[in-house]
């Protein structure tokens, strides 16, 4: 890669408007270097989705600065900012149309080869090919009812076809079995070198091989490091590990 996809959080605090002034994120500082995979873990409501929502400017920090490629995101047009990244939301959204249309959504100029590579990386190609109409199969009303995990893999394929510098997966493999999830991560390592990846997860197995893991607890960063170092030093991480 050309070294793009750096993310810096500098003393970031955040509260939602109308959220009774309660801080959802408190003085968060960490960096995500180009090409790194950074895991984000923490109990429900700890602020994981809010944290990553600051990167594409779904919200702006109340205090502190978020930088992408060294530039304060508040100085960047959200549209241009979002072109660098792909976000797979917690709840996958497929629309009525073909599998192909769903994967190429937002990137209609993608070739069949690009679409297929994205689907292969997301471990979706094989189950798509097993349906009678393959990539022309219809999704949604009157079409195929894919399983929750299959829908998640389709939305990961949709993100990858955009060839982002930054990939944000917000609990996007929660319904995917661990073996398939491992294959997705291996494929990303092999075919998407240089991609910066933020991986929100509930289970430790999803993040344990990340370059580093950020541990959130009630909006505070309570640990950062590798799986091994966090197991030694971070009580909250140990608790998640044991649960
Ligand atoms: P999850 O998805 O259940 O694992 O939880 P997290 O860790 O992603 O937490 P997050 O960022 O969704 O929520 C953190 C806090 O912010 C929690 O107290 C709920 C609150 N919150 C989330 N979204 C909104 C919103 O749109 N408006 C307001 N006022 N509060 C929100």
Secondary structure layout:
Layout (H helix, E strand, L loop, with lengths): L6 E8 L10 E8 L4 E5 L6 H6 L9 E6 L2 E2 L5 H6 L1 E4 L8 E2 H6 L7 H10 L3 H6 L7 E2 L8 H13 L5 E5 L7 H14 L4 E6 L10 E6 L2 E6 L1 H7 L1 H8 L1
Parallel strand pairs: 3-10, 3-11, 6-9, 9-10
Antiparallel strand pairs: 1-2, 1-4, 4-5, 7-8, 11-12
Helix pairs in contact: 4-6, 8-9
The site of 2'-deoxyguanosine-5'-triphosphate (DGT) has 12 residues, from α1.
Structure described in brief:
Helix content is about 30%, strand content about 25%. The protein has helices at about 50-55, 80-85, 100-105, 110-120, 125-130, 150-160, 180-190, 225-235, 235-240; strands at about 5-15, 25-30, 35-40, 65-70, 70, 85-90, 95-100, 140, 165-170, 195-200, 210-215, 220-225. A hairpin with a 2-residue loop joins strand 11 and strand 12 (about 220-225).
């Amino acid at each position: 890669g050309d070294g793009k996809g750096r993310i810096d959080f500098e003393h970031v605090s955040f509260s939602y408007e109308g959220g009774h002034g309660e801080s959802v994120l408190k003085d968060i500082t960490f960096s995500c270097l180009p090409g790194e995979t950074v895991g984000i873990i923490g109990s429900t409501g700890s602020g994981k989705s809010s944290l990553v929502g600051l990167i594409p400017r779904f919200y702006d920090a109340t205090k502190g600065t978020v930088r992408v490629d060294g530039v304060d995101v508040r100085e960047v047009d959200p549209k241009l900012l979002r072109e660098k990244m792909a976000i797979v939301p917690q709840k996958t959204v497929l629309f009525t149309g073909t599998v192909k249309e769903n994967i190429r959504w937002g990137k209609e100029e993608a070739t069949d080869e690009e679409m297929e590579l994205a689907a292969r990386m997301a471990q979706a190609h094989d189950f798509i090919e097993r349906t009678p109409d393959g990539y022309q199969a219809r999704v949604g009303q009157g079409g195929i009812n894919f399983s929750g995990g299959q829908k998640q893999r389709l939305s990961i394929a949709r993100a990858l076809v955009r060839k982002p510098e930054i990939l944000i997966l917000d609990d996007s493999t929660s319904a995917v079995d661990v073996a398939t999830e491992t294959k997705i991560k291996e494929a990303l390592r092999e075919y998407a070198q240089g991609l910066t990846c933020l991986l929100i997860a509930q289970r430790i197995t999803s993040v344990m091989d990340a370059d580093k893991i950020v541990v959130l607890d009630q909006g505070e960063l309570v640990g950062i490091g590798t799986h091994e170092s966090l197991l030694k030093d971070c009580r909250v991480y140990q608790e998640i590990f044991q649960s």
